[in-house]
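Table S2 (continued). Query chain:
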Amino acid sequence: MKILVIDDDVNIQGSLKWLLETEGYQVTLCGNGEEALVQASSTSFDVAFCDVMMPVMGGIETLEQLRKEQPLLKVIMISGQSDIPTAVKATKLGAFDFMEKPLKPEKVILEIKKLAQQQRIENEIAHLKTLFDLDEQMIGQSPQIQKLRELIAKVAPTEGRILIYGPNGSGKELVARHIHHQSGRLGRFVQLNCAALPKELIESELFGYEKGAFTGAHKRKIGLIEEAADGTLLLDEIGDMALETQAKLLRVLQENEFTPVGSTKPIKFDVRIISATNKDLQTEIKNGNFRHDLFFRLNVIPITVPPLCERREDVAILADHFLKTYALRNGKRPKVLLPGALAKMLEYSWPGNVRELRNICDRLCILIPQDEIEAADIDQVAGISSEIQIVSTASGTIKNDQSLKQQCSDFEKQVLLSAFHRHQGNISHIAQALQTDRANLHKKLKRYGIK
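Corresponding output:
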């Protein structure tokens, strides 16, 4: 922690310097406000002790200027006399605390430790928010993802029930979270995986239960519907819900109320219901595995999340995002995919979709020691080389109705997109990485509309 001491009294300076350095802090001394501003313009400080009465520039003015220069700086004002109006003014200008002289060493150390603890908490919150934001992002620039974002923005503010279709790992839960965040609802986002629990437990999880409702029910438990009050409930893998439970859920949706297990008193609720499935529910209805009346209740607004193989132009962007996210989470330098490694990834069919891509990126970060990932690393670590289908209409890598020129052009665009995002649009870095001149690079970026 870096501490700035601003006082025209050399004895105060010396005392604070000795006390704080003994505790392991870095201390910089200034005799007036102007000196302090010079130091603050070139060095970032965590805490400043600032005397109120100083020549050249008073403490209040110094406080005001320091806060403009470093808004996060915690300033503790010190004064030889008790002056309530000055203390109030300093607090309004952003002073963290006000201490009277003579300073008590134990109080100074206690204050610094309190500040250090607060700083740690603030840093952790900022770090967690960054990680949360990274996890909540919908990454991609493909037409499919752009249309998906537009649809979410359109339906999120409404009250219509939504049924999300898509294969495993494609991002159905992420879509549901985006709908919730854009809905304006103040309650929580709650989810239930209908495939993970037997039918006997799903009802108690959804509706809750009263004390004594069954053996082991020692106290009342609220269900997920009640927990999601004024918020959103995601019923994931709704296609795996037992028919008996489907009938009860249908009644709940019809009446807009539920009854906890072991109770006779129904409870009204205000919850946005979103369902998700990787199954064809029309086929499930024909096979007698899903109720058609429940389907019509849930399928008010259908949304389809495309598999990754249908939006290959997002592979490079997603991989770059996952590599950077892993580095941030683990305090490491982010790795980059060299063109050969990216080519391997673009050729793969991604049966596990975005989830599989993320797992492979994590695996590469853990097992590859160097910062640059080569094609050989994909073969060795990712374990996808044997499954790559370079010429395959099923994977969509090469289309039979495209000329060789068009196929080469598509691949070149993917390489350029990857490099553009990896180097955050820095033309010099992109040209150096791809070993091409800037003029040629500018022409190609313009041709493919990359900006």
